[in-house]
């Protein structure tokens, strides 16, 4: 069982559950649930995968293999669907290669036809016409450039002094305007370690642990969803607008943003740590 493997390795390295919680920003009660195989106590399948991956990486184990085994043991239907999609992709690639071969063969036949004496003479005539048209266009553009007025080499110095009130207004800093962005642009600054998952337009673009001091930017056409395992360590801006922190320290929070701003947010796990 995955929990037994992780517990054995943790104990082999003389680490406590609190050591793991501190190093991964995963709450101790979730670490204990993973080791006991009580996955129903975790916020959900996505969080379970992220926590297990983070835990395994911290112990310097093969995180991909452990997560795959977790899915095989607890969500075999997802693994089967992924394998089927992989098989379909492989078959599509084979079919695509066959189509390319057929097109190349058709291209060889076309080249043989073009190489015939009659077609070669027609091609030379077409090339000559193209050269004549190109030469005429170059001559016209060259004439236009030679007749164009030249830019003055010296700028006129303005001696009039602006009124004091105008100078004062000019010195006042302009109020920062919101950044105009097509779609959704999320900028996240991390002040502490935080397990994070980001999904843009339904596609997972990041999943892992962010270190303190990191700043990352993610973009989506319709929406961006961020899930933070330590919400108090994430400061966010959406399309240039300051959205503040994602939540409280140690809280697991999911937030959804659209081009108009925050669409919805939910604290995925806000129960106090009993450890």
Automatic annotation (TrEMBL):
Q: Does the keyword Secreted apply?
A: no
Annotated region (Disordered), positions in chain: 150-178
Query: Cross-referenced SMART domains, in alphabetical order?
Result: HTH_XRE
UniProt-listed Pfam families:
HTH_25, RodZ_C
What region holds the HTH cro/C1-type domain? 5-66
What PANTHER family has UniProt attached to this entry? CYTOSKELETON PROTEIN RODZ, PTHR34475
The protein in question is named: Putative Xre family transcriptional regulator
């Amino acid at each position: 069982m995955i929990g037994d493997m992780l517990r054995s390795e943790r104990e082999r390295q003389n680490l406590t559950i609190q050591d793991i919680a501190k190093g991964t920003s995963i709450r101790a009660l979730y670490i204990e649930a993973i080791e006991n195989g009580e996955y129903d106590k975790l916020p959900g399948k996505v969080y379970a995968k992220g926590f297990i991956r983070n835990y395994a990486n911290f112990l310097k184990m093969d995180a991909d293999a452990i997560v795959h085994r977790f899915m095989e043991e607890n969500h075999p239907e997802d693994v089967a669907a992924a394998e089927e999609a992989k098989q379909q992709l492989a078959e599509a690639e084979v079919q695509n290669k066959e189509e390319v071969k057929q097109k190349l063969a058709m291209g060889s036949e076309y080249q043989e036809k073009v190489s015939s004496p009659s077609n070669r003479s027609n091609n030379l005539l077409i090339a000559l016409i193209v050269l004549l048209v190109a030469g005429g266009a170059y001559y016209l553009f060259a004439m236009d450039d030679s007749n164009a007025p030249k830019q003055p080499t010296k700028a006129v110095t303005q001696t009039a002094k602006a009124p004091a009130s105008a100078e004062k207004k000019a010195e006042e800093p302009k109020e920062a305007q919101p950044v105009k962005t097509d779609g959704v642009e999320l900028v996240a600054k991390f002040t502490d370690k935080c397990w994070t998952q980001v999904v843009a337009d339904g596609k997972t673009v990041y999943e892992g642990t962010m270190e303190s001091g990191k700043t990352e930017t993610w973009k989506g056409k319709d929406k961006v969803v961020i899930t933070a395992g330590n919400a108090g360590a994430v400061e966010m801006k959406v399309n240039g607008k300051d959205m503040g922190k994602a939540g409280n320290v140690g809280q697991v929070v999911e937030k959804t943003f659209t081009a108009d701003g925050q669409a919805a947010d939910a604290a995925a796990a806000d129960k106090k740590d009993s450890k």
